[in-house]
Task: inverse folding
């Protein structure tokens, strides 16, 4: 009985394909997608990146606070489109992993807060400062406030006490843990930035 040549070649082809598949590296798990600037874009950022027009950016460095990962800087911003006259105000929070004075070029993270978010954020901080074990009937609690620009303020209980932290990009970055008085300090810096924005324009 004569065996067709195609039948003889088929097992060899299958073996070759299996060998090639075994040599190919297994695909690794895809990395988590990085947040894009547009994902948490504020009106302030939108105007900052406007094209086809002169964009005037005014700013005041309000102050800074130290935490577990370095320093957080607070800046009041006023941005104006010279062509249309559109103006946006807000606050920038920039987190640096270094505590070296005057080295803000080493910033790692940044988030912006639109002006209309400041009062609700300050009221949220006031509420979070009053939280204690009675916030929930369960063993632990975590309270969180997030701005549209991706800044996250979180307060949570631990076996050793209460902890407050901030992070950027919607909480996808490592937390910047504040000192025990950090929440009040954070609030005061926001108030100072708002005062700078509310100050009358010089003649």
Result:
């Amino acid at each position: 009985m004569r065996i067709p040549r195609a039948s003889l070649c088929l097992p060899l082809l299958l073996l070759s394909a299996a060998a090639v598949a075994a040599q190919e590296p297994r695909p690794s798990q895809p990395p988590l997608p990085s947040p894009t600037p547009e994902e948490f874009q504020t009106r302030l950022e939108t105007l900052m990146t406007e094209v086809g027009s002169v964009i005037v950016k005014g700013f005041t460095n309000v102050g800074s606070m130290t935490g577990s990962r370095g320093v957080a800087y607070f800046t009041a911003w006023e941005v104006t489109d010279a062509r249309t006259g559109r103006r946006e105000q807000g606050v920038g929070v920039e987190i640096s992993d270094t505590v070296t004075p005057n080295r803000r070029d080493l910033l790692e993270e940044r988030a912006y807060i639109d002006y209309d978010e400041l009062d609700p954020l300050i009221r949220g901080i006031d509420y979070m400062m009053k939280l204690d074990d009675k916030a929930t009937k369960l063993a632990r609690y975590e309270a969180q406030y997030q701005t549209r620009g991706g800044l996250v303020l979180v307060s949570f209980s631990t076996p050793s006490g209460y902890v407050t932290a901030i992070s950027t990009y919607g909480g996808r970055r490592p937390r910047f843990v504040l000192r025990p008085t950090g929440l009040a300090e954070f609030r005061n810096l926001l108030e100072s930035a708002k005062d700078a924005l509310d100050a009358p324009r010089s003649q």
User: Anything to note?
Assistant: The longest helix spans residues 5-23. Helices lie at 5-23, 43-48, 115-129, 182-198. The beta strands are 55-67, 70-81, 87-96, 107-114, 142-146, 152-158, 161-167, 176-177.
